[in-house]
Amino acid sequence: MLPRFRSTTTQSANSGYGGCSRAKPYIFGPVPSRRLGLSLGVDLMPHKTCSLDCVYCECGRTTHLTVSPEEYVPLAPVKEELAAFLSTSPELDHITFSGAGEPTLHRGIGEMTDFIKSNFPQYKLALLTNATLLGREDVRNRLLAIDVVIASVDAAGDEAFRRVNRPHPALVLDDIEAGLVSFRKAFKNSLWVEVFLVPGGNSSREELTGIREMLGRIRPDRVQVNTLDRPGAESWVVPMEKEDLERAASFLQTAELISSPDVGQIRGTGDELAGRVLAAVQRRPLTLEDISRMLGIETTEAFDQLQKMIRDKALKRLEMPRGIFYLPKRG
Fold first, then answer.
1. Helix 288-295 crosses helix 271-281 at what angle (to 10 degrees)?
2. The pTM is what?
3. What are the residue ranges spanned by the domains of the chain?
4. 143-158 pLDDT, tens per residue?
């Protein structure tokens, strides 16, 4: 089960980057999403407040493990920030509830959905969720107006669930599956399932067989297979080899591999560029190529921007098999 994946234009009194007038603004991007095209992220959760502590999470370890829906951030400033950005009529493929925590933990996600649908109906809404709260009818009902829900299914057995997802003690895998089945019956829009494979964690044939059987009961519209692409929460987690990933996708029958995006981006300048970069890497590490696509600028210009932010001690670099990733420098 996967917890996933804010930007402003007001100059900060505490930062040289105009995109970061709050410590954690509520929208981020637009960013190039491998599944959703050009996506504007909406983050309703404090950093790493989640029901799981997945070993592969690109946002790091969970610091607040919970299954209690609350109003974790007030909705009024989220609406204000979002409306200010969308009033410029940006070209977007989706507005996506995501970030460094589990979005369905915010009990106001239905209200935010209604706000966007009422005021900006031209945009499609997406949600990235670890599906752990879908056993609750009130949570399921809050999500029914969203256009695309991408839920994670990483385990069919309790051992793999504990090893890979490190769930809150109150969570039961059978209940999560039952919640997904119930949601599928009520949800009239697109339900996708992502299976994130960790070698030595949930990649055995026995586990994949169980996942395939689960998918048959859930009956999603699409199944996507993924593996580590960015730094995970634990250093022992490594990517699955491409050939093994392809075999796993074939074994799951209807599954597809997640491919890289090829989308145009919205350009900004100066502090606005830096603010967009910082807001985005706070949610997930990005490569130079990711940032170039996100900003709509040449890689040389993006590199100069990143080097300036490193000199200003806003970013740091981390080398991974896919290349060098840029992350916020904390502390």
1. 130
2. 0.76
3. 27-328
4. 999 999 999 999 999 9
